[in-house]
Design goal:
Blueprint (H helix, E strand, L loop, with lengths): L1 H7 L3 H17 L2 H4 L6 E7 L18 E6 H19 L5 H4 L2 H23 L6 H9 L5 E2 L2 E2 L1 H9 L7 H23 L5 H11 L2 E8 L12 H10 L5 E2 L2 E10 L10 H10 L5 E2 L2 E10 L6 H19 L5 H8 L11 E6 L6 H7 L7 E7 L2 E11 L2 E2 L2 H34 L5 H7 L3 E3 L3 E2 L10 H7 L2 H6 L6 E4 L2 E11 L2 E2 L2 H35 L1 H8 L4 E7 L9 H9 L9 E7 L2 E11 L8 H28 L3 E4 L5
Antiparallel strand pairs: 1-2, 1-22, 3-4, 5-19, 5-21, 6-18, 7-14, 7-15, 7-17, 8-13, 9-10, 9-12, 11-12, 16-17, 20-21
Length: about 650
């Protein structure tokens, strides 16, 4: 037996099998077989390697694929931002339930996927954004400007105020990534154009005028016919979804507001230590206003090209140092820096180490005001630098900043007290998560309750999106336990517990009987109006609208030379749109139609149509329309490009994690 086993496990077949089995262990390790991996992505974007476009998506070949995940936290943050923006835009009309629909979540996720695709595409295509382009874009951001000019102090202050704080280097890399990501889509959008023929045709359509006759169908008499029980029952069964009561909850909650906690007394020694620790915060570095002329040297330049560039830079430097030289004019005529060339080489105010290349930085801070120095070599080429002004650094005294230090110390103490109280509350609640009262009583806090509310929210904490999301979560609704701490704002948190829950359900017929009867009567009146309109339209097709209206005892209104965009509120724009949505009349045969506008049925006849007179369009109006149409076409081209890019990736959506 043993000999037979030995014979079966030797030879080239067994060796081949052993090799196949060994390769995955050698590359991916035994731990990949021994450990379990929990996937948390909402969307996964995958692309085969560039050198093997047809690589199958099977293990272990998938290890060669480029894969990026959009995790649940990133999607959650984007969804929350979309929710806040929509709530702010719609106010009381915001529908929380509609926002939570799968379709809306997919729209938010698709936008996130498109952004990630553009970032991956830019990286794969080797798109690189220069330091000069990054600096130019940052200088143009209005939030970093004072009196219309970029301000270094404001720039650094705003970055430090972010949560979490951003360093200039980190922000510059974020701007660089955004520019690279948006480069291709933005250029595609800007490349759209409209030909003169297309513009003429569009202006003729937009300026079109029509002659119209119409008859407003009078509202039918109020329906007073009896409504039988059978009709009520049938209507109720057919329209049950219209009589649903929304899902509701009622909460108990404990709120901790750090802003109401007593502030600690300020200690003189602590204030002075804080001042020394933060001395840089109360000091402003020396700033220098500089201009430059760049003679660019490509990375692929040969020795002769580099030498020629250096000679050109030396010649420009000599011209710039000449008495009476106009440095700005020289920069506009000769600089290779597209970002500062039009401004005469002006780079604005810089501080030491603020992002300029090292050699440039060293030279700029070793010069005297009015001095021209160069050529100075950096990775970008040769620079001729002029120092326009020097603004010395300053340092505020302890006495000057004492009120700020005292306020910071008190806020820090209040924050510490808030964190300690919140921590004690959480610990106490977790010991007895089925009630908030014992923990609140032990810490001297108050348990409050909300009225019953739906997903649309209610005044107070029930208007907070985070609270709404937690209140209707399966975990809190089903278990009846306390939530994790929910941060409502700085130094403000709340723990909630669902104490009453009513699922969405169809209301019983007895409760909505009056509403059902009203709906049946309204439906009868609507059908009567439709029948009257249809009868008039049929008669108009046979004998013309004027004769049909006269026979029915109805008045005919006439609108001659009606523009497509009527400036007057009468007739209302939806009615005008209906007049222009039907085909043009051929010869002398009017085009008949029927529409509902403002709740009233209207039968109409378009008697004639005329193109707009493009000779009356001003050059300004023509240019404005061209810009608008090109922008619209550009957006469509941009969307088409993104959809084309999607076809080169495999995108997997985890529907159960939305």
């Amino acid at each position: 037996m043993l000999q037979k086993l030995r014979d079966k496990t030797t030879g080239w077949i067994a060796g081949t099998i052993l090799t196949i089995v060994t390769i995955p262990f050698a590359f991916f390790g035994v731990e990949s077989y021994m450990s379990q991996r929990v996937e948390t992505y909402v969307a996964r974007i995958a692309q085969p390697p560039s050198w093997w476009k047809s690589a199958p998506q099977v293990w272990p070949v998938t290890y060669l694929w480029q894969i990026e995940d959009i995790d649940a936290q990133e999607f959650k943050e984007r969804l929350e931002n979309a929710r806040l923006n929509m709530r702010n835009a719609q106010g009381e009309n915001f529908d929380a339930k509609a926002f939570e629909s799968v379709e809306n979540k997919r729209r938010v996720l698709d936008a996130l996927i498109d952004e990630r695709l553009m970032r991956m595409t830019a990286r794969n295509d080797g798109i690189v954004v220069s330091d000069a382009e990054v600096a130019r874009n940052i200088r143009q951001i209005p939030e970093f400007q004072v009196d219309g000019a970029f301000n270094v102090d404001r720039y650094q202050m705003l970055l430090a105020a972010q949560n979490p704080p951003l360093t200039p280097r980190a922000f510059e890399e974020k701007v660089r990534e955004d520019l690279a990501t948006n480069l291709i889509p933005a250029r595609i959008a800007r490349s759209a154009f409209v030909t003169d023929l297309e513009l003429d045709r569009l202006m003729r359509l937009l300026g079109e005028h029509r002659d119209v006759s119409f008859v407003a169908i009078p509202a039918p008499a109020a329906d007073t016919a009896p409504v039988t029980d059978a009709e009520i029952e049938a209507w109720y069964k057919a329209h049950k979804d219209e009589y649903r009561s929304p899902e509701t909850v009622r909460l108990e909650y404990v709120e901790v507001d750090g802003n109401t906690l007593p502030a600690p007394a300020a200690d003189e020694a602590a204030l002075r230590k804080r001042y020394q620790d933060q001395i840089a915060k109360f000091s402003s570095p020396e700033k220098r206003e500089v201009s430059h002329i760049l003679v660019q040297v490509p990375a692929s330049a040969g020795a002769a090209e580099k030498k020629a560039a250096e000679a050109r830079a030396a010649k420009l430097a000599a011209e710039a140092r000449a008495p009476g030289a106009d440095f700005a004019a020289l920069a506009r005529a000769n600089s290779d820096d597209t970002g500062s060339k039009a401004a005469g080489g002006d780079l604005g105010w810089i501080t030491k180490g603020s992002g300029m290349p090292g050699a440039f930085d060293d030279a700029a801070f070793a010069m005297q005001a009015g001095e021209v120095r160069g050529p100075v070599k950096t990775d970008f080429g040769w620079h001729i630098i002029k120092l326009n002004q020097i603004q010395p650094g300053t340092q505020r005294s302890f006495e000057d900043v004492r009120p700020e230090l005292e306020k910071e110390l008190q806020e820090g103490g209040r924050e510490q007290a808030f964190n300690e109280l919140t921590g004690k509350l959480v610990d106490a609640v977790f010991k007895n998560p089925t009630s908030l009262a014992p923990a609140a009583r032990a810490l001297g806090l108050q348990v409050q309750t909300t009225p019953v509310f739906s997903r649309a929210g209610a005044p107070g904490i029930a208007s907070e999106p985070k609270v709404l999301r937690a209140a209707f979560s399966d975990a809190l609704v089903q278990d009846g336990t306390a939530s994790d701490p929910i941060e409502l704002g700085p130094l403000r948190t709340v723990l909630i517990r669902v104490i009453e829950h009513q699922p969405e359900q169809v209301q019983p017929l007895a409760q909505v009987r009056a509403a059902v009867v009203a709906s049946i009567r309204a439906d009868r009146e609507r059908k009567a109006a439709d029948a009257a309109a249809e009868a008039l339209l049929k008669a108009a097709r046979a004998q013309g609208l004027d004769a049909a209206a006269a026979a029915a005892g109805l008045a005919v209104a006439r609108l001659d030379d009606l523009p497509r965009r009527s400036p007057a509120p009468v007739p209302p724009q939806p009615l005008v749109d209906a007049f222009f949505n039907v085909p043009r009349p051929q010869k002398d045969t009017p085009v008949l139609g029927k529409t509902r506008a403002g709740g009233q049925l209207v039968v109409f006849a378009v008697r004639a149509a005329r193109d707009g007179d493009i000779g009356q369009v001003t050059p300004q109006e023509r240019a404005q329309l061209r810009t608008q149409v090109a922008a619209s076409i550009g957006v469509q081209a941009q969307e088409a490009f993104i959809q084309a890019v999607r076809k080169h990736y495999v995108i997997k959506i985890a529907e159960d994690r939305l």
